[in-house]
Amino acid sequence: MKIEKKVFGELNGEKVYSFTLENRNGMKVSCITLGCIITDVIVPDKNGKLENVVLGFDNVESYIKDSPYFGAVCGRVAGRISNGQFELDGQIYELPKNDANNHLHGGPEAFDKKLWDAQEINVIDAVGVEFSYVSKDGENGYPGNLSVRITYTLNEQNELSITYHATTDKKTIVNLTNHSYFNLSGDLKDDILSHKLQVKSSEILELNANVVPTGKFMNVTNSPFDFNTGKKIEEAISSTHEQIQLVGQGVDHPFLLDDHQNEEIVLIDEKSGRKLIVETDQQSVVIYTSNMLEEPFDIRGTKARRYMGVCLETQGLPDSINHPKFSPCILDTGEEYKTSTTYRFNVLK
């Protein structure tokens, strides 16, 4: 196994570094110090052809100007916070609104736009990078100095593991995720509509017109959101269900996971033969089928359009701080926020 470090570009006069992790199977994962962004995940198809299966760019400028969170870590709080505010111990905290009336993915200039410190990891059976960043008290409206460490490791079993750690010196809220867009066709040859998705989930969160949870849990039985036995993504998004139409004719919903660390999320592209298994200790996964990706930019020579990727954002429930029935995302002094997700790539037999 090996790891290669090089300069990816510059941001405000500071160098942005890229780290490429590679195992003996030829799988490569590249990530950069800007936003802990995963720029490339290169894995073999059923014929052994190595291709990239995530959306991304080859330069810093595109990530700053055009990126809809491609491959980035979202925080301090992933997802939307309704009305850009929350209450903690009787104090109201106002957050910048960067998504209509909502606060989205930590706000403007959030974790995805920060330069992180990085340290290489070399052990017997894995290589990786540990990113670290201190979010100052008051940054984007959040209380507390938050110390964050995020580790990416690649092993010989074609597993990419992401571990998140955080501590604070003042009670605050934290809910982190990675926002990679997966497309198993390889190098964007096709969209993800024919990808087959299986999710062990019996409930989703209902969304309102502002795409934030209403607080209601919806059973997925006899709905387009039932992926328990696996089905093609196009079968779900072609539905006339009001929740599908609400988010631009697609999926952008939190799925409560019924199982953990047991192949609870599986994505398959039968044409390429690639298979992705996601296992996590998180409560939910936000599945986003890139319904809003109609933007005037190219992704490595391919014009951006809807359904080019699917995000599998493992996390706590969005907007949980504003819903008493949800498990809160509160982190207090003396506590540690710690969670992990593993992405395992293989091919159909």
UniProtKB/TrEMBL annotation:
It holds the Pfam family Aldose_epim. It comes from the Bacteria. The keyword Electron transport does not apply. Its EC number is 5.1.3.3. InterPro entries: Ald1_epimerase_CS (IPR018052), Aldose_1-epimerase (IPR015443), Aldose_1/G6P_1-epimerase (IPR008183), Gal_mutarotase_sf_dom (IPR011013), Galactose_mutarotase-like (IPR047215), GH-type_carb-bd (IPR014718). Transmembrane segments: none annotated. Pathway: Carbohydrate metabolism; hexose metabolism. CDD domains: galactose_mutarotase_like. Keywords: Carbohydrate metabolism, Isomerase. It catalyses: alpha-D-glucose = beta-D-glucose. Belongs to the aldose epimerase family. This is Aldose 1-epimerase. It comes from Metabacillus halosaccharovorans. The lineage of its organism: Bacteria, Bacillati, Bacillota, Bacilli, Bacillales.
